[in-house]
Specification:
The chain contains 19 helices and two strands. The chain has a two-stranded antiparallel sheet with strand order 1-2. Helix content is about 70%, strand content about 0%. It is an all-alpha fold. It starts with 9 loop residues before the first helix and ends with a helix. It has helices at about 10-20, 20-35, 40-50, 55-80, 90-100, 105-125, 125-130, 135-160, 160-180, 185-195, 220-250, 255-270, 285-290, 300-315, 320-325, 330-355, 360-370, 380-395, 400-410, and strands spanning about 85, 280.
C-alpha cells in the first residue's frame, strides 16, 4: 500500500483539513481512552510500590503522555500513516516489582541505558533486518492472539452489565449495516447514555490539577542496568515494538521500522530524566486506529494518529487527574468500546494469518502461544508466540536445512 506511506512535505500539511473526518477523531479519542483506562493504572501501581511522591508520579505521567503525543503526531504526519505510540506497558509491569529495589536516580539511569540501546537498534536498521525474516502470516497471527482477549471481553461485559453492553453491541451491528464508518462512534454515544441513565458514572473522585515536570539527575548503577535496563529494553522491543510493526503490516502499511524505532528511542532518551520509562510503538491502540472504523480510505487514517497524539498532549498537562476522569467511566464501557473498535482488525488478522496454506500451522502455533499468556524471563507471550511461529515455519518449510547447508558452504 505505497499510497499510504508518502513521506512528509510542506504540501502534505495542507491536506490535513481535507483529510479530516469525525470518525478518525473519535477513533483517536477511543485509543487514548483505552491507554489511560488500563495501562496507566499499572504506572500508579509501580509508583506506589516504590513510594514515589505524587509530584514524581505526575511528572512521570506528563513525560510518557507528552512523549507519546509528540511522536504519534510527527510520525503520522511524516508517513501519512496512523502510527500510534504509547508508553511501555510490559515495562510498567516490570517496574511494579523492580522499581522499589533501586534508588530512583539509578532507575532513571537504567531508563537512559534502555533508550540508548533501542535508539541504536533503530538507527542501525538491525530491528528491520530481524523483522524481514518473520513471515507476515506469523506477525498477523501474533496480532490476532493479542486482540482476541479484547474481543472476548465484549461478551464478558455483556454478562456483567447487560443493560450497558447489549445496547452498545446492537447499535454497533445496526450501524455496521447502514453506516459502517460511524459504527464505533454511535456505539460509544449509546454507551455513554446508558451509563448515565444507569447512574454508573462515579464523579466523586475526580480532582483537577496541573503537572509540574520534575528533572531527576540520572546516576549510573551496574546493578540497575543489568536488573532493570536490559530487561526493560528486551520487553519493550519484544512485547511492544514487534507487535506494533505487526499491526501496521496487518492493515497493509509498509512503513519502514527503523525511523519509527529511532524516533521513539530518542523521545525515551530525552524524557527519561522526567520519569518516562519508555516510549514505543503501540499495538492494541494502534489496531483501533488502523482499521476501517477510522476511515474507509487507508490513506486518510493517519488523521486518527494525529488525533490520538493531540489528545495525549492535552491530557499530559493534567497528570494524575486524567486517571480519575477515566476511572469515573464504568469498566464495562471501556471494555466494550475497545473490543468493538478492534473487531475489524481481529477479523482481518485472522484471515491474513490463515490465508497462506503453507504457513497455516506456523500461524496457528503463533496464535495459540500468544493467547496462552505465558511469560518467560519477564518477556510476554506475544514475543514467544513470534519465536514459536518462526521456529515452526523453519522446521516445516525446510528453511533449517537450507540455512545449515548455507553455513557449511560458507565454512568450506
Amino acid at each position: 500500500m505505497s499510497s499510504t506511506n508518502q513521506r512528509w512535505s510542506v504540501s502534505s500539511l495542507k491536506n490535513i483539513p481535507a483529510d479530516f473526518s469525525v470518525s478518525a477523531l473519535i477513533v483517536g479519542l477511543i485509543a487514548t481512552m483505552v491507554s489511560y483506562a488500563g495501562p496507566l493504572l499499572i504506572v500508579f501501581q509501580a509508583a506506589k510500590a516504590a513510594n514515589l511522591s505524587e509530584a514524581l508520579l505526575s511528572s512521570w505521567i506528563w513525560a510518557i503522555s507528552i512523549g507519546s503525543g509528540l511522536t504519534a503526531i510527527v510520525l503520522s504526519i511524516r508517513f501519512r500513516t496512523p502510527i500510534i505510540t504509547a508508553w511501555s506497558t510490559p515495562g510498567a509491569v516490570l517496574l511494579v516489582t523492580s522499581l522499589s529495589v533501586y534508588p530512583f536516580g539509578d532507575a532513571i539511569g537504567a531508563y537512559l541505558f534502555s533508550a540508548v540501546v533501542i535508539t541504536l537498534l533503530g538507527v542501525s536498521g538491525l530491528f528491520s533486518t530481524i523483522m524481514r525474516y518473520v513471515p507476515p502470516s506469523i506477525t498477523t497471527a501474533m496480532l490476532a492472539g493479542i486482540l482476541l482477549s479484547f474481543g472476548v471481553q465484549v461478551f464478558v461485559s455483556m454478562q456483567q452489565l447487560p443493560a450497558l453492553a447489549l445496547p452498545m453491541i446492537i447499535c454497533y451491528l445496526l450501524a455496521k449495516r447502514w453506516s459502517p464508518r460511524y459504527a464505533v462512534v454511535f456505539s460509544l454515544l449509546v454507551g455513554l447514555l446508558a451509563a448515565f441513565f444507569l447512574n454508573r458514572f462515579d464523579l466523586g473522585g475526580i480532582q483537577v490539577a496541573l503537572v509540574g515536570p520534575i528533572f531527576t539527575m540520572p546516576t549510573v548503577s551496574l546493578d540497575a542496568i543489568i536488573g532493570l535496563g536490559i530487561p526493560l529494553c528486551i520487553v519493550t522491543m519484544a512485547s511492544q515494538n514487534a507487535p506494533g510493526i505487526g499491526v501496521l503490516q496487518a492493515d497493509g502499511y509498509d512503513t519502514p521500522a527503523s525511523p519509527l524505532i529511532t524516533t521513539t528511542g530518542v523521545a525515551s532518551l530525552l524524557l527519561a530524566p522526567f520519569g518516562a520509562h519508555g516510549i514505543n510503538l503501540a499495538a492494541i491502540t494502534a489496531a483501533i486506529c488502523t482499521g476501517k472504523e477510522a476511515h474507509p480510505d487507508p490513506s486518510k487514517r493517519y488523521i486518527a494518529g494525529i488525533a490520538c497524539g493531540a489528545f495525549y498532549l492535552v491530557f499530559s498537562m493534567f497528570g494524575a487527574t486524567i486517571v480519575s476522569v477515566f476511572s469515573a467511566f464504568p469498566k464495562e464501557l471501556i471494555a466494550v468500546i475497545a473490543g468493538l473498535a478492534l473487531f475489524a482488525s481481529l477479523s482481518s488478522s485472522l484471515a491474513s494469518a490463515m490465508s497462506d496454506a503453507a504457513k497455516r500451522e506456523s500461524a496457528l502455533i503463533t496464535f495459540l502461544v500468544t493467547i496462552s499468556g505465558i511469560s518467560i524471563g519477564g518477556v510476554g507471550a506475544a514475543f514467544w508466540g513470534l519465536v514459536a511461529g518462526v521456529i515452526t515455519n523453519a522446521i516445516l518449510t525446510g528453511d533449517v536445512r537450507r540455512w545449515v547447508a548455507g553455513k557449511r558452504k560458507q565454512a568450506s
